[in-house]
Amino acid sequence: SCQWGYDSDNGPEHWHKYYPIAKGENQSPIEINSKEVQHDPSLPPWFVGYDPGAAKTILNNGRTCRVVFDDTFDRSVLRGGPLPGTFRLRQFHFHWGSSDDHGSEHIVDGVKYAAELHMVHWNPKYSNFAEALKQADGVAVVGVFLKVGKTPKPEMKRILEEIDNIKTKGKEAPFSNFDPSILFPKSRDYWTYHGSFTTPPCEECITWILLREPIEVSPDQMAKLRSLSINAETEPVCPMVDNWRPPQPRHFRMVRASFQ
Ligand SMILES: NS(=O)(=O)c1ccc(C(=O)NCC(F)(F)F)cc1
Ligand SMILES: [Zn+2]
Description:
Blueprint: E1 31-32, E2 38-39, E3 46-49, E4 55-60, E5 65-69, E6 77-80, E7 87-96, E8 107-108, E9 115-122, H1 129-132, E10 139-148, H2 157-162, E11 172-174, E12 190-195, E13 206-211, E14 215-217, H3 219-225, E15 256-257
Parallel strand pairs: 1-8, 2-15, 10-13, 10-14
Antiparallel strand pairs: 3-6, 4-5, 4-11, 5-7, 6-7, 7-9, 9-10, 12-13, 12-15
Bound molecules: 4-sulfamoyl-N-(2,2,2-trifluoroethyl)benzamide and zinc ion.
């Protein structure tokens, strides 16, 4: 059936059968090779104005851990950088590996990070997210790499504390008063290119803003993320790990850097 996933029988190599765009020319993720990146001095800085009160719930949807925000008005927004106008924060989620040496979706000069955080925003010039994802300029995702080091990221604590309440598919818990910009690294340097959802329906609607500087988390924090399960409560335990899509062909796309 159409239940896509990351296993050998429903994973990225199968997605095109139900979502033909998965074989498109603007798919994500991609490999970023610094040598082929074009520094664009005209790229402005990006800004966020997030209202902590917009945070609503944290859920396990059987494929990732997602935090959802109220996006019924311009309450938490992203603007600047390569974007035309302001984009509304809708949710953020993660992709990670079964061990610290892989797990990110984008790969930078051959480096695979342990995980990748995606902050998903949509263009309110379209009436809703479902409409926006059909447009080339409909969605903007800020990607942040997670690397494993000795120092835990204190700002990840609240998210990881909720993991025990959303262990299995379909579990949801209230998640309020959270400004996700505390998860950003110090530097605002970024790469940007046009791409797609990295999961079905793989729509080519995303302006990617990938931050160059990773955030550092501890081994225990990564282990906490890996303690999530993809199964429902009543089903056999199946760890939620390796929920990443491998890099897709870049084709004729330019990757621009905001930095030299
Ligand atoms: N991994 S990613 O590219 O940031 C990414 C971001 C958002 C969605 C999403 O909203 N899927 C649900 C929808 F839209 F109904 F299909 C999928 C992937
Ligand atoms: Zn994602």
